[in-house]
Design goal:
single chain, 48% helix, alpha+beta, Band 7 domain-containing protein, Band_7, Tetrahydropterin Synthase, Chain A, three-stranded antiparallel β-sheet, Band_7/SPFH_dom_sf, 23% strand, transmembrane, 4 domains, rod-shaped
Length: 317
């Protein structure tokens, strides 16, 4: 029986099982020897010890809150973790930032031995402190508006890059996969005032958009009307100029004719004028200037019908 117990103890001390998501870190009298892959492995009893490190499992750390339970009964608690979520922004405001970091072990040796406070049984306290320090640094470089609204994605990317650089510098053996901001809000004491400010900003943006829309409608129309007025003025100017030049050329032509034959030109102008004016008159009566006693011969009744008001024009020629 004693021999069987010794053989069983020796067998349990010689063989060990490494799961598929783990690697085994073998220590001999506390000194690192090697890293073994998943499967059934052997070691020297009593002198060798094995620490199993999950290298493919994704690990998660939560900041500002904790979740308890799984599935449909998951509960979220935030009351006990406000201190790690309260942060000062670059414009000296306060924001409550809850976030999650997902990471994995990239180098088991560094993860176990390089940095104190990182590794199995420590809850990776040093890594948590590094997360909080980097997040506070990044949030402190931005305004509260950026943190609460448009800057969330940029914060996630920047924190991931800086945190990975810090992990590499300290040789923690950790690879940061993802930073996710959960809830980013102002403190409860100022949240109503923040909501009012946010509503005012939304109303301001709406009014600016409406004004821009109105501007886009009115300004192009006014520009078109102005261009149309300018074209009409230019057309009117060109018409007047052409008419004036035509009248000037006609006057110069007549003057040249008049200068060459004044009497003939004067007579022609008189006749042309009379030809235009006489058709616009009503009744016309031509009397020789030497005639005498012509009153009984005047057709007064006909003249009254042609000139109802009794007026008329007489050409004594």
């Amino acid at each position: 029986v004693i021999i069987a117990i010794l053989l069983l103890t020796l067998g349990r001390g010689t063989f060990y099982q490494v799961q598929t998501e783990e690697v085994g870190v073998v220590l001999r009298f506390g000194k690192f020897i090697k890293i073994t892959d998943p499967g059934l492995r052997m070691k020297i009893p009593f002198s060798d010890t094995v620490q199993r490190v999950p290298v493919t499992r994704q690990l998660t750390q939560q900041f500002g809150f904790r979740t308890t339970g799984t599935g449909a009964r998951t509960n979220i608690s935030t009351e006990m973790f406000q201190d790690e979520a309260l942060m000062l922004t670059g414009d000296l405001n306060v924001a409550v930032v809850d976030w999650i970091v997902q990471y994995r072990v990239a180098d088991p040796y560094q993860y176990l031995f390089k940095v104190r406070g990182i590794g199995p049984g420590t809850d990776d306290e040093t890594f948590r402190d590094m997360n909080e320090a980097v997040m506070r640094e990044v949030v402190g470089d931005r305004t509260v508006t950026e943190v609460l609204t448009v800057g969330r994605q940029d914060i996630e990317v920047t924190v991931k890059e800086r945190l990975q650089a810090l992990c590499d510098q300290y040789e923690t053996g950790i690879a940061v996969d993802l930073i996710v901001l959960q809830d980013v809000n102002p403190p409860d004491a100022v949240k109503p005032s923040w909501d009012e400010v946010n509503q005012a900003q939304q109303q301001r943006d709406r009014m600016i958009n409406e004004a821009q829309t109105r501007y886009n409608q009115v300004i192009p129309r006014a520009g078109g009307e102005a261009q149309q007025t300018i074209l009409q003025a230019e057309g009117y100017s060109l018409d007047r100029t052409n008419r004036a030049e035509g009248d000037s050329s006609r006057f110069i032509s007549i003057y040249e004719q008049y200068r060459r034959a004044p009497d003939v030109t004067r007579q022609r102008l008189y006749l042309e004028t009379m030809q235009r004016v006489l058709p616009m008159l009503g009744g016309k009566l031509f009397i020789d200037e030497d005639a005498q006693g012509v009153l009984p011969l005047l057709p007064l009744d006909t003249l009254r019908q042609v000139i109802p008001n009794g007026g008329g024009q007489e050409d004594n020629r």
